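Input record (one chain):
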Amino acid sequence: MCKEHQPKQRPGATLNNPEAHAQDHQTWSRRDFLSATGMLGAGGMLLNNLGLRVFQPSPLMAALAGGGGGADDRILVLIRLDGGNDSLNMVVERGNTHYYDIRPTLAIPDNQMWYLSNEYGMPAYTNALQPLWENGMMKVIFNVGYPEPNYSHFRSYDIIASASDSDTIVNTGWMGRFLDNEYSAFLEAPPTVPPALQIGVQTDLIFKADQANMALAISSPEEFYQIAQNGQLYNTAGLGNTPHEQELLYVRQTANSAFRYASTIQTAFGKGKNAVTYPGDNYLAEQLAIVARLIKGNLGTRVYMVEIGGFDTHSEQAEYHPTLLSNLANAIKAFYDDLEQESPELTKKVLGMTFSEFGRTIFENGSNGTDHGWGTHMMLFGGELGNGFVGNYQDLSNPDPYSDPPFSVDFRSVYATVLQDWLGNSPDMVNYVLGQQHPLINNLVPAIAPDLGENNRCALLGHNRHPNLPQTIEIKYAMSSGGPIKLQLLDKAGHVLRTLVDDYRNKGSYTFNFIAPQWFVGPGTYQYRLMSGGQVFQREIRI
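The corresponding structure, as predicted from the sequence alone:
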């Protein structure tokens, strides 16, 4: 590569600065231990290995999704490509001479692709996806990112998981906030189905709510199968009477008794069956096989998350990236084939979505790899999705040797569109979950209108500290139709202390600025309650 085309090396982004890169990879240690293990919230255990997460919606979410909790309600499957996927070698702009100039050893030749269109192609080793594309079950979102990108794996993933701006630290995840709103009494009256189920090393920031992590952590598919078949996480048989063995017996019995989700998992696992053979030696396929079985078994969840790692391809990318993309393509094809065997209609209810913390540099480096870059492509899968492209491909015609082309689509617009159009949430709820309004992407997914009905006239959206006014807490709520409302502050025992609002409200979203000293309320833990249209919503608040 010509010296003038060498990209500027960012500290920690490449292997050329080992100390900074090591620091980049070690920043996970800032995570709270209990949060990381999932011991808060769903009662999870820190184990180790793969990454599968499952979310159970409340009856409200099921209603918004347009169904009654059966197998034919809409489902979202998030597929994390961990490490920063090189999207330029995943979906290639055909005939772009600049691409071949800046990637002399890594570029995919045109005769080694299958064609999405006259303009774009994918490497031949992903040809398992070709039937999905041809059958109108696949879309590509080009060059997804966010302003002022951060090139640390962990910080960038925290941004993606929390849906925050790059200069703002948010310690909850977008799905965690959504689930927290749906399960406002999660700690006091937990559900019998896990709001989040993770098979992996640690629970994910995506699932972290204000007071709890909504994920139950299980280490591997093998341990998942043990739970599904035996209803226990740890074996208690065969332990002797030595002090050590008795202590181990007590710990295992305690862990097993805390695992309150066994019966619902066993029931769904027993009812659902895999109808196709998934590819071997493919961890993603192993995870998706479990997801398919749980969907078929009517576990009642709406959002799943699986992951495949290894995309941090700083060197010898040609040795590793093709295998990763091949495993991705083969796993997704098997998954949708499995769903179609159950019912062709089921594929129309399951939306798959890939995402990664960032992309790779448009230039290849001196180690035959790529370094941490800006935008990356996302892919969507599902029946009745159609096929096509969203956003603008990276402009390679006038490459800057010091930075990548700007991103085209903000990842939060993708989230907003999926939350509103696919899962059927109201705009007020979407804006609250994401922290601000983001434009929707027209015709990205088949849209479903939120059917709030007579019994869903209002929604308590939650609260947060005011960003500028000291001692001020913003309490947010929305009305889908006009009516009388009452907002009250209660003590921990449920006794009403103050009535903050007692009035008629028109349709719309509202924010009440609660300033504790003005209401003669001291520091402590309280509850606040919204009542309207025969509904009652209640949440805990710390002042």
